[in-house]
Amino acid sequence: MLTQPQLRILKWLSEYPSSMEKSWDVSRDLSLPGIAEGIGVVRSALNIPLTKIEEHGFVQKRMAHVIGGGSRRRQVYHISNSGRDYLSQLHVSDITTKKPKSIFGNPPKQIDIYGRNTELAQSLEILSRKSLIITGMPGIGKSVLVRKIAAHYANKKTVRWVSANEFTDYLEICSVWNFMPMIPQDVESIALYFTNLEEVLIIDDYHLIDKRHQSKIQDLVSGISKHSKMKFILISRDTLDTDFGFEKLKIESLDVDSCCEMLGEDIELSKRADISEKLGRHPLALKLYDSTFESPESSIGIIDYVNDVVLKNIAEEDKKLLNQMSLEPNPVNSKFSIIEPLIEKFDMQSLLKWYNDSDIELQHLVRNVTRSNLSSDEIQEIHSQLSLHWKNLPVDGNLINYFYHLSKSAPDIFVERISDSLEQVMEHNSAALAVMVEDIIEQDYNNESLRYVACKIAANRYEAEYLKQSVEFLSGDKRLEMDFILAKLEGRLEQCEIIVEQLIANQSSFEANKLLISLATQILEDRLPNQKLDDKLIRKVNSYLNRLDFSKLANRNVILVAVSMIKFTLALDEDKLSDAVNILESIESIQHNQNPICLSMQSKLKIYQYDHGIIDFDSVVESVQSNCAIIDNKLMSESLKLKLIESIIETNLDQAAKMFTQLTKPNLLPRSSPALRYCARWWLAKSKISNLDKSSLKESITRYRESGCHNAAKDLESKLHSIL
User: Fold this and answer.
1) Quick one: pLDDT at residue 644?
2) Rounded to the nearest 5°, which phi and psi values hold at 595?
3) pLDDT above 60 (res 317)
4) Maximal CA-CA distance, the chain
5) What is the rounded CA–CA span in Å between residue 195 and residue 75?
6) pTM, rounded to two decimals
């Protein structure tokens, strides 16, 4: 008969298929540190039970490459056929169920937990009434406890988990929660989505969220929690400034018996109890304990223990890598990490925290203590070393790491280089970039170049309030540019007109022409699908076109084509079909008739003809789909498909819904003003297909407003209010 520790190991290994026995790459869960972590014991506690089940022939060991665990092979363990046969004969109550529950997001693996029955019962009782904030020092077992709570609820309702870091914003949280394929960006739209749902939403490491993103995340939590059926669990090291009206539970030290279980059978019970008390009955301190360490003479604080015992037993060269790793702002891919050569060594010492078998960071307690031992000069030097490390690893995911460490070690160079790469980095991770820039601003409050970068980031993220505060630090053309963007975001259309005149006066003929065409196009776009322009707006569009200056242009054709497209749209809007046909033929004489612009205009003409009963449904579908198959501009082709859906959605909802599922989601398209308008129309179509879904309708309003289409947003808002 096997003991419980032996059974736990066997059951843990049984979760992995026998096919892994010959695999070159295997999960870290089959290595010594993975098994120890999985069954919740100190690594040395595996010695006796593993030896015993090996003697029974229930496990076998070999050398293999551990996924994410460095280049060297490690010793791994597999359950044998006789081990599986033994487990199959046991009554289900003899072993601990380890089958993971279905939890959305990035939850940690569910592992065995010792003790905490009282805290578990308290948590479940609180959650039956209201949401919960769980606090406690690093390594005390907050996440492990909440993972068990999550497993408890996962059989009954949907559970979503996100682990936060220094760069996390509300969009990242929603993306990881994965509650719908296309995530709204408006907080109120997200809150509306959760109306009448009964789910559990978990944010781990809430205290790591940077103040640059705190207010939006607070709005998100407050907005969703208004719906009484939703339950939040926020996990934080410290008490939060905003408690949201949630109940709080602080996790304290483990009981002695549970600590003794974690330390295993190869240490005498009385000695285990003594070690547990001297280490403050702290779970992570126990896992960091090594039998080769000298036992503390008397009780020792956990921070002193990490400093005076754990770190003291690490070689100086290894400690340098540990210092470098401690300054990474978020988990990094183990393959690219600066500690890659020593991953196995640090893993065996229980110094690493793992995510999805590949991303690593230092255990937060070890990281915090290590950071606190570094002087400001040492910190700057390490950031400089890390910036060089990540610069030499030109993979998209590493770009943010490079710029983060550059911002900490050489702020002036950071501002210069980020200005050259701003669009690329914003596309990749604007939330992280916003945090970096804000940190430097705190050190150089009135730096106009830095404030301009901050404004461009805020404009890219449609953060009108932040932009409003920051434009005060700008002057000249930079101020004018950002004032225009802010006025547009806030819907101050008359102010936009005033600023436009100043912008036109200060620009070259080419730039002025581009702006005038942009303004004319904006009027055409600022309306709901199938809505006609009134005479006043048509006159305004023509007034912009009449101001175009062709006298100094080398590339007249570009402007002429743009003007023709606008006039073509106006002709269809005014039911002047013959004029529209003449304009199209004129464009085809300049461009090839298979040119994307010509194909787009042909498609719009066919949709117009269908709307007016000139051609039938099959003809318009065949024409639009064949044209879109040739058009190599993804946004243009998808926008045309959406226009066809908008044309039939009121009369043929089933067909519209079918075609809608084949559209490209807006978040997969490059960021631009036309893409934002497509996004607004996409959400509006989704709301109609989903029986006037309020969340989608609200998101469409927000996207219209952010794209500067305030008239469309206003019309749609009236519709939403009538529904509400």
Assistant:
1) 96
2) -65, 140
3) yes
4) 97
5) 50
6) 0.86
Instruction: Determine contact, residues 487/495, Cβ cutoff 8 Å.
Output: yes
Give me the CATH topology for the region 116-250. Rossmann fold (3.40.50)
Q: Which amino acid is at 613?
A: G
Q: Phi first, then psi: what are they for 613, rounded to 5°?
A: 75, 15
Question: What is the residue-wise DSSP string for 578-609?
Answer: HHHHHHHHHHHHHS-TTSHHHHHHHHHHHHHH
Residue 179 identity? F
The number of residues in the chain equals 724
pLDDT in tens, 480-492: 999 999 998 888 8
Q: Where is pLDDT greater, at 397 or 621?
A: 621
Residue 620 has a pLDDT of 95
Q: Pick from 703, 684, 707, 704: which is nearest to 694 by CA?
A: 684
The pLDDT tens digits for 191-213 are: 988 888 899 999 999 999 999 99
Average pLDDT over residues 387-401: 85
User: Token pair of 189, please?
Assistant: 């739209």
* 707 compared with 294, residue with greater pLDDT: 707
- Domain 4-94: top CATH class: mainly alpha
Q: Which of 565, 611, 569, 606 is nearest to 588 (CA)?
A: 565
CATH 3.40.50.300 occupies which residues in the chain? 116-250
Helices (H), 160-255: 170-177, 187-193, 211-225
- Euclidean distance between CA atoms 568 and 579, whole angstroms: 8
What the block records as the tokens of 143 is: 């996440």
